[in-house]
Design a protein that fits this description.
By secondary structure, the chain is mostly helical. The protein is globular.
Length: about 425
Amino acid sequence: LAADLAAERGLPRTRARTVAIGTGVVASIYGPLVMFGALADSTAPFTVLALAACVLMERVARDPRGARIGDPRLLEIGLALGLAALTRNEAIWYAAAWFLVAIGVARSMGTAGRLAALLRLVATPALVAIVAYAPWALRQWATFGTPLPGQAVTNAFSRSYSDIFAWTDRPTLSAWLAQGPGKLIEDRVVGLRHNLVTVLLVPAFPVGPIGIVGLPWILRSRVLRPLLIGSTLTFLVTTLVFPVSTTAGTFLHAAGPVHVLLLLSAMAGLDALVAWIGARRRWRPSSAVLGPAFLAILAVPFLFVTISGIAGISTSTESRLTGLFRAMDAAGVPVTENAPVIADFPIWVAEAGRVSTLALPDESPESVLDLARTFGAKLLVVSAGSGHGRWPAVLDAGGAAAACFVPVPAASVRSDADETRVYRIACP
């Protein structure tokens, strides 16, 4: 992408190479991208596939070649988008970006056959993407009764981030509207602040702020048009349609291509700035390396801050859960013999204990008991003071269902910031 951008801007050979290689070097030490590559998440595969699709889109837009159905680039666009859809739903916005780009390509091919060209440009990748996505859709259909990602619609009506784990009290349109316009506007302001500051500015310093400032200078770039459209749609939809869910990571996990866009914007802006100063100071052509060097020097310290922060969280959580599982073994309730387990940190418990884990809904004891009966769960692991909803304090209110959760004192372990509690689910 950086090499294509340099060619589009007509940069001299030395500057073009510096921009392209410099972008790759900075990307390799850019905190958010390094973090995405290290975590077991959907973010890194989605980023790679979405960027590959954007590169191919630009190549077709630059040289349509009559928009032939058998053009391997069209087939590859469809494959990249189909595989990206297996990682994240936000692949649909990059498909939308291709549709918009394809309209411009069809217009450039003249009046005669414009509609047929648009159909070939859109239908060919769409069919390939559907074929790539079909096995998963069939699995979804067999398992959940629908081939579509139905929870994506439900998430739009979330009133709190914990609604994604709802069991009986699921989000509804009526409950969402009942919050009133003030709360709905507030949620979007919070979502905007989170996506802009928490995702794009703070962890991405200095690339993020510089890239945002430099965006006006790349808005007309043909090379970055698919990436710019896809990134903009992703940001707007997650902010305005999913403002509650996005505070729990909706935009964060789809922001890889956006970070790359900001990196390209920052690199192009700094290159132009160095060239402008160099022309007035009569610097040598080799001074083009100053832009990448500036970003790299500032990015390294923040990379180590990011790594140390994530490592610290991982190490402390592993230590806490390891101690918890040892205490559970001593109490005669080994986690591996009571699968599945209900937990408020289901991913951590599942990974550390190698046990099937259900997410704890922020609902009544009756609801959680129904969840346990449905899946045969016998244990509840919950963190006191974690800020993850009403549990375990909700049990203090008593009631018939609350009595079904019997604490296991010997399995309670305490860390500096948290206390983890274990309950037997006693009612049949």
